[in-house]
Amino acid sequence: MSIDAVTRLRLLAAGLHTTMYAEGRLELPYDKVWAVASDLAGELPHLVPLLREFRVPPGDADRKGALAMGPLGCRSAFEVRLAPGWCLMQSRLVVGGMAAVPEGDGTRFAMLGAARPAALRPVQWAYALRARHGRIFIRKVAERAALRS
């Protein structure tokens, strides 16, 4: 039995005990939504407030390294797995993911963010509860996708 990318991300979020998981239906075509989600270097800094730049080498490889830079110059290396409808980004401290599947004339889209060390989970809980970041992230993806022609 095969599961779709959004279900797969939901299961990963449950396994990671993440506090930052959101899922929703966007009234936009899958191609527009995934064009935003998969443009990591161009779009991720617009979607994640604590990210100034996300450097990803060009090319079609589905696995690659990336470098995230925060507003104060902090850097973190990420391993990225990017395939149609699926993105998983992992650093030493953070796991992030996005998934999308066509749903009728719209798109089901999900995101997750998790701290890897258990010691960081209280910070993650406070951040997720205060900012409601998952829903904000999805709303930003929809806004940026709607701007694409």
Describe this structure in words.
The protein is an alpha+beta fold and 149 residues long. It is built from 5 helices and 7 strands; from the N terminus they run αβααββββββαα. Strands 1-7-6-5-4-3-2 form a 7-stranded antiparallel beta sheet, sandwiched between helices. Helix 2 crosses helix 5. The longest helix has 15 residues. The model has no long low-confidence stretch (mean pLDDT 88).
- Tally of DSSP helical segments: 5
Main sheet characteristics: 7 strands, antiparallel
- Taking all Cα atoms into account, the compactness measure Rg is 15 Å
Proportion of β residues? 25-35%
Give the termini separation.
Answer: 36 Å
Order of helices and strands: HEHHEEEEEEHH
Total strand segments:
7
The helix content is 25-40%
Instruction: Label the structural class.
Output: alpha+beta
Catalogue the unreliable spans: none
Strand order of the largest sheet: 1-7-6-5-4-3-2
Give the overall silhouette. globular
Overall mean pLDDT score? Answer: 88
Please describe the topology of this protein.
Blueprint: H1 5-16, E1 20-26, H2 30-37, H3 40-47, E2 53-55, E3 63-69, E4 75-83, E5 86-90, E6 94-103, E7 106-115, H4 121-131, H5 133-147
Antiparallel strand pairs: 1-7, 2-3, 3-4, 4-5, 5-6, 6-7
Helix pairs in contact: 2-5
Search tags:
single chain; about 150 residues; alpha+beta; 7-stranded antiparallel sheet; 5 helices; 7 strands; about 35% helix; globular
